[in-house]
Amino acid sequence: MRSRIFLCLVLVLCCSCAQPSVTHYELDVIAEYPHDTESYTQGLFFHKGQMYETTGLRGKSTLRIVDMTTGKAMRRVDFHKKYFIEGSVVLNDNLYILTWDSKVAFAYGPDSLDYKATWTYPREGWGITTDGKILYASDGSSTIYVMDENMSLQRRIHVKSDGRPVRWLNELEYIDGKIWANVYTTDEIVIIDPKDGRVEGVIDCRGLLPKDRRGPETDVLNGIAYNPETEKIYLTGKNWPALYEVRIVRKNK
Question: Does 253 score more than 90 pLDDT?
């Protein structure tokens, strides 16, 4: 009996040791660009080398193609005040846009910005991204929803770090085979393996926007964009005055 208990303990310890640990990173700021302080950033991504942004709040929700040198919208779509716009992404010929609590999602033409379609959406919309084949969406929980291009649910990814659920997943970006996710109300971004939901890395973004640049309307970190043409990563936040080009650096223990 004792030998069997001892064997079980050894197996548990071996399994624990075999589980990869979470890698911790910090930011190295490469460059800074202006960001519109009226932009309550919800979705941020690149398409054909151009930055797109969706902004939230009722009566202020927009879809924008942004001039990075000024932070201003070169073209924009304004939504009806009943909609609180959330995350956005382009897959194939559709620019997908989520709404927070209206139970609908929209499709627009990614180049024309013309309205194309409305889908019924069965959950809260928060963030959305793509690997170029399928869609990944968050709803503020620890679950990421995998959908096809018709927004039909294919499977769920349950995100965990060291075996514990990671909640408040918000804006998403797919970078080098992993899903990066803002953790709402925090200064952390988690790097997720989409195959099993395991958090492989945590990025400490504290101090990215200095305290002396924050105003009454400055809100939380939210907005991750990866430009595949340049392999550059950009971060911003809701009503922030700046957009940052960054790279991540492994923290020294």
Answer: no
Q: Give the closest residue to 172 by CA, choosing from 217, 127, 215.
A: 127
**How far is Cα 96 from Cα 63, in angstroms, rounded to an integer?**
11
Residue 100 in tokens? 């927070």
pTM for the model: 0.91
pLDDT tens-digit readout, 152-167: 999 999 999 999 999 9
> Which residues 6+ apart lie within 8 Å of 230 measured at CB?
49
Q: Give the model's pLDDT for residue 14.
A: 42
Is 23's pLDDT higher than 60?
Answer: yes
| SS3 sequence of the chain | CHHHHHHHHHHHHHHHHHCCCCEEEEEEEEEEEECCCCCCEEEEEEECCEEEEEECCCCCCEEEEEECCCCEEEEEEECCCCCCEEEEEEECCEEEEEECCCCEEEEECCCCCCEEEEEECCCCCCCEEECCCCEEEECCCCEEEEECCCCCEEEEEECEECCEECCCEEEEEEECCEEEEEECCCCEEEEECCCCCEEEEEEECCCCCCHHHCCCCCCCEEEEEEECCCCEEEEEECCCCEEEEEEEEECCC
Q: What is the pLDDT of residue 20?
A: 73
- Whether the CA torsion 156, 159, 165, 171 is positive or negative: it is negative
Q: Mean pLDDT, to the nearest integer, of 126-149?
A: 98
Question: Tokens standing for 225?
Answer: 């964009």
Which pair of structure tokens corresponds to residue 78? 């304004």
Q: Are strands 199-204 and 23-34 parallel, antiparallel or unpaired?
A: parallel
